[in-house]
């Protein structure tokens, strides 16, 4: 496959104009202060299907022949690519088949079906679904729409960088999430053509350093449950890895706690919902601010499809990490008045009790003693610290639970 040129990317931008949202590109003022750089955010999570994938999918579909449109297309995806292909396929009157692993969340299956696609559930993993989709492609004469390893897909994603640099021409650096590599490949070609000196940094989840391994010769282990499932790719693209080798300066990895922190800050500060993969660029800026200090940096919030229950967990865990919610294990004598004395300390420290549990059996304390586990919430970390000091001054033994 031949990589797209800047002419291909400009043509793609013209082709999809009006059918995908030209998303806002805004300065994150508070985030800039936190990081010590001028941080610009591209809100691709505001696309209709809540992800940048629409750009590449639409560019691909618009270039199909009449015969190919009549026969229909097929894709393998359990996420944003599925919805992008399904949505624009319906708009254009193109039959769409999406193959998903059997354990794909029902919400994603339903959303894809609502866009008019035929959904086939097969296999335990994405690799199984992908292999079956290629078999159906051949058996039914369908056109396969790859999520990233296709020049038309790459060209469509390049339109993001054109929009960013049109609005802020003097960006020093682009920080872009990497899964299969389609997003950063298109953006890198476009950005290098507009500004050859711009720095381009890719970001992968620490659990899935697949592109870093093949491009930089790393040997990081691949696998595990990551918040950034949208970039949890075991085998990156062949076309995209070649483009990345040529145009991307380096690839950095981010830990799970950094991804969680970025998602939570985007909700709290920017009032926007972003999935783990979409927050990977900001996660790197927050985790390694010294790399970007004083620079003008643009990053892409490339998707916003996150399960609401998972988002709630992330936000609560952020409150724990910043010290506003705590779980304290308080050792006390198991006798009348002990709990009252403990709660009196909470009242005096103005800390709210969320939940209380006695643990009399699974404890190293003497049989006459008990562990009282208290989950509590305060206005800030200092209030929790003051509470612990107050409890210890009263003779109680206090142990704090930690996430990390």
UniProtKB/TrEMBL annotation:
PROSITE patterns: ACT (PS51671). Pfam families: ACT, PALP. The keyword Metal-binding does not apply. Its cofactor is pyridoxal 5'-phosphate. Keywords: Lyase, Pyridoxal phosphate. It catalyses: L-serine = pyruvate + NH4(+). Residues 327-404 form the ACT domain. The keyword Zinc does not apply. InterPro entries: ACT-like_dom_sf, ACT_dom, ACT_ThrD-II-like, Ser/Thr_Dehydratase, Thr_deHydtase_catblc, TrpB-like_PALP, TrpB-like_PALP_sf. NCBIfam families: ilvA_1Cterm (TIGR01127), PRK07334.1 (NF005600). Belongs to the serine/threonine dehydratase family. This is Threonine ammonia-lyase. It comes from Sphingomonas astaxanthinifaciens DSM 22298.
């Amino acid at each position: 496959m031949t990589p797209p040129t800047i002419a291909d990317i400009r043509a793609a931008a013209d082709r999809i104009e009006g059918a995908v949202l030209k998303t806002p590109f805004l300065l994150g003022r508070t985030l800039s202060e936190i990081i010590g750089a001028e941080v610009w955010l591209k809100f691709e999570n505001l696309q209709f299907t809540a992800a940048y994938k629409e750009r590449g999918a639409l560019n691909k579909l618009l270039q199909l022949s009449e015969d190919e449109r009549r026969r229909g297309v097929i894709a393998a995806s359990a996420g944003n690519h599925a919805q992008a292909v399904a949505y624009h396929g319906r708009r254009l009157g193109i039959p769409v088949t999406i193959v998903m692993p059997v354990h794909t969340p029902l919400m994603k299956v339903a959303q894809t079906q609502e866009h008019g696609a035929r959904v086939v559930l097969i296999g335990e993993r994405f690799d199984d679904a992908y292999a079956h989709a290629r078999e159906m492609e051949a058996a039914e004469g369908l056109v396969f729409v790859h999520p990233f390893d296709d020049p038309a897909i790459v060209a469509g994603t390049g339109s993001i960088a054109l929009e960013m640099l049109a609005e802020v021409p003097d960006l020093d650096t682009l920080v872009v999430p990497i899964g299969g590599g389609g997003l950063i490949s298109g953006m890198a070609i476009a950005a290098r053509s507009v500004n050859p000196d711009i720095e381009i940094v890719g970001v992968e989840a620490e659990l899935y350093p697949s592109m870093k391994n093949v491009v930089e010769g790393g040997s990081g282990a691949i696998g595990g449950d990551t918040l950034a499932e949208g970039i949890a790719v075991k085998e990156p693209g062949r076309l995209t890895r070649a483009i990345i080798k040529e145009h991307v300066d380096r690839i950095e990895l981010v830990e799970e706690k950094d991804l969680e922190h970025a998602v939570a800050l985007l909700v709290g500060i920017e009032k926007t919902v972003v999935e783990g993969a979409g927050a990977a660029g900001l996660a790197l800026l927050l985790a390694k601010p010294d790399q970007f200090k004083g620079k003008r940096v643009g990053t892409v919030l490339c998707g916003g499809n996150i399960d609401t229950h998972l988002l709630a967990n992330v936000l609560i865990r952020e409150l724990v990490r910043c010290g506003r919610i705590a779980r304290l294990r308080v050792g006390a004598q198991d006798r009348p008045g002990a709990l009252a004395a403990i709660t009196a300390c909470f009242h005096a420290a103005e800390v709210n009790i969320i939940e209380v549990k006695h643990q009399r059996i699974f404890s190293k304390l003497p049989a006459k003693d008990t562990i009282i586990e208290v989950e509590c919430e305060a206005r800030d970390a200092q209030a929790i610290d003051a509470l612990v000091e107050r409890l210890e001054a009263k003779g109680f033994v206090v142990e704090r639970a930690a996430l990390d």
